[in-house]
Amino acid sequence: MNSKIFAIFSIITLVSIGIFSNYPVFGHFEHLPHNNGGGKDLGRYYANQALEPEYAKPGEPTHIEFSIQDDDRNDVNDVLTAVEIYDAITYQRIEVFPWTLHSIGDFEIYYTFEKMGNYFVVISLDDENSSPEHIIPPRRIITSTLDCDCQRALFNISITPDIGTVWNVVMLIAIILPLAVFGLGLAIHYLNLKKQGRQPDRPEMVKYFVMFLAIAGGIIHLGVFADHGSLRIDYSVFLLAAAATQVAFGTFYVLMTVIQPIKTSRQSILSHHNKTVLLNLIGFVGTAVLLGLYIYVVIFPPPLSPDGQPEEIEFDGIFAKSVEIATMIGIIYLMQYEKKKKNRLLADNNMQTK
């Protein structure tokens, strides 16, 4: 029964990914900006903004990135924009990038914020692409459209030296803490078995190891979701589904392989073996698909990529795939062990019935 539920859950996951695969792009950025980014309405357009590096320090060269789309979040061409930068405390304009016609709605400007503090980045978009030649004067009401047939949006930028370190530490704790708690639970269970005079054998230890790795892979995917989830609805569904499936696989592993059947009849032995085979196959194939997709997207642009570029090879990706490779190796070992165990139990059963 548990194997049927897990199989149904996996099918629902794949169907959900297919249903959401036609949703529009949120912004053509490499990752979802958590800091110094956002989106604003610009009349019949929508402007996404991000800063690269996201956690810029004073004196560090930056790219202020924009991705302008229409109301349906489709790409647009020939957009006429101007960009200004204001000090958020004094409201003094410190830089202006004059009207420029961009062939596509994705573009970036280069600027170095010399001092720590808060800034306003204002983008102006000409409604009719009439190529205005006037220079935008500084304004006290920064988003005012007086004397300009345009739409304006304001984005907040914060330049601090330490916020990036804080974010990375928080994300690291969010991944390590649940793994540490789960690992501690397994360690306590192992010590309790030893106190009872029972020494777990190698296959049982591998089962715990596979269970731990599967759940670890799910938690890592949740951590990756924070950076990639909202680039597309597809990414959100896929990453959350992958995380939930891996955690569910580890949980079902406890129910179906660690907990042994009480009955030792031939039928119960075969039934338990078939369930473990199905569970191991689902885990192996699912993990192999995740690994194959990762190899593909670091070599070629993903079919639904927001920026049309291959994914960067980063530490969290390498860590996640290392966990998945170890999971596959453990599953192969356990499948061989379960087959030998079934044959041994059937042989014992035959001896008892004679």
What does this structure look like?
The chain has six helices and eight strands; from the N terminus they run H-E-E-E-E-E-E-E-E-H-H-H-H-H. It has 354 residues and is an alpha+beta fold. The chain folds into two domains: 175 residues, no CATH class; 122 residues, Macroglobulin (MG2) domain (Immunoglobulin-like, Sandwich), CATH 2.60.40. Strands 1-2-3-6 form a four-stranded antiparallel sheet, with no helix packed on it. A hairpin with a 5-residue loop joins strand 4 and strand 5. Helix 1 runs antiparallel to helix 4, helix 3 runs antiparallel to helix 6 and helix 5 runs antiparallel to helix 6. It is elongated, with a radius of gyration of 27 Å. It starts with a helix and ends with a helix. The relative contact order is 0.11. About 4% of the residues have low confidence.
Features:
single chain; 354 residues; alpha+beta; Immunoglobulin-like; 2 domains; four-stranded antiparallel β-sheet; elongated
Q: What's the number of extended β-strand segments?
A: 8
Sheet with most strands: 4 strands, antiparallel
Low-confidence stretches: 11-25
Helix content: 40-55%
Beta-strand residue percentage: 15-25%
Terminus-to-terminus distance: 32 Å
| Average of per-residue pLDDT values | 78
Spatial sequence of strands, sheet with the most strands:
1-2-3-6
Shape: elongated
For the record, the count of structural domains works out to: 2
Order of helices and strands: HEEEEEEEEHHHHH
The structural class is: alpha+beta
H/I helix tally? 6
Rg over alpha carbons: 27 Å
